[in-house]
Amino acid sequence: MSDESAVRVRSAEARDLDGVLAIQEEDQPENGGTLSARFSREWFAQAAEDEFLIVAEVGDRVAGYVAFTPREAQAHVGVVRAMLRAHPDPGAYLHGPICVGREFRRRGLAVALFRAHRERMHGAPVMAFIRADNVSSRAAHVGMGMREVAEFECDGVRYVVVAA
């Protein structure tokens, strides 16, 4: 029997994709969430294969995930292009998306995921964007050691750039 309170943070595998996609979907704006982009199963599968996707698992369920990629892997996303114009840091890789399932929030999973990917990337420079009105995500990222370094607008929405 699995311990439902134990959290395991590990590299994502193909078997995790349904859970990752379900969490992504519940955090889309039309479902009351704050994600700014929707990535395909194929994109997540490639990130997992390239070892740029980490999951937090509680029991046998995916409870959260974080992707961290070279900027080329997200160059197709308009808001990413806008962020790179606002804060062009050629040495930084991209942090995100990071998302924790609603029922697993406020348990430290985002911090655990962030630490795991920072360790995987050996502390290399990292950057991400957050909707300016997403106060909880901004506070969480600052709490993880990132700092707000720029602001930009894309499609009428204000964002902040965070970096570490």
From TrEMBL:
- A Pfam family per the record: Acetyltransf_1
Quick check: keyword Transcription in the entry? no
Under the heading InterPro entries, the entry gives: Acyl_CoA_acyltransferase, GNAT_dom
Question: Which region is the signal sequence?
Answer: none
N-acetyltransferase domain: from which residue to which, for each copy?
A: 7-164
Question: Which Gene3D superfamilies does the UniProt record give?
Answer: 3.40.630.30
Q: What GO molecular functions are on record for this protein? A: acyltransferase activity, transferring groups other than amino-acyl groups
Secreted as a keyword of this entry, yes or no, is no
Q: Which UniProt keywords apply?
A: Transferase
For this entry, the protein name equals GNAT family N-acetyltransferase
Q: Which organism is it from?
A: Geodermatophilus sabuli
